[in-house]
What does this fold into?
Amino acid sequence: MGAVDLRAGRRRMLGVAVAACGAVAVTLVLAPQALAEAFAGGGFESPSLMPGQCRTVHAGEQLEAWAVTAGDVRVCDTAVLNAAEGRQSVQLVGEGTIRQSFDTVPGQKYAVSFALAGDPAEPRTVKDVLVTASPGGARDFSVDPAGNAPQDVGWENQTYRFTARTVTTWLEFSNNTFDYTPDKPAGFAEHGPLLDNVQLTPVSG
It folds into this structure.
């Protein structure tokens, strides 16, 4: 029996052999396995933090169903930066990027809704987040944190739309905010955009 390439085929082989009078009968059943899973909404409520606490998640680590693929991600309790939903939100720090893969139907249109805000600790810089569905395209979203406060970071509801092309799609949020503070090297802002309540919905039209 040849080896089954689990990485390429993602299939499980079950074999039953019955031998009688020197004859062997073999029955093979191939059961397909899912390449990904259903989309897990981004409320960023797990693990639960103590009131007033923040936690940093680094590249290569996992945050719920999201993989941190670059930079850092800071999760804060609503007592530090008020959450749009629940008690916790997430901030993309430096090159901070989160990504999630999930099942999609080719040709189906989807809407990704999310809450976006800017950290008032760095009010001079408009915060930008790049949202990408691959394959599916990318779009930049911006929010101005000027005049906001930790108790009211100015959450704005945003919607990103894409059409799935394959049975598996990955969705990515990455900090696209550049810091041009004098006497500092230009680079991605340490106080990047805040995200909360990420939801995925199939749409028509």
Remarks:
- Residues 54-203 form a domain with the Jelly Rolls fold (CATH 2.60.120.260).
- Residues 1-35 have pLDDT under 50 and may be disordered.
- Residues 180 and 186 are 5 Å apart (CA to CA).
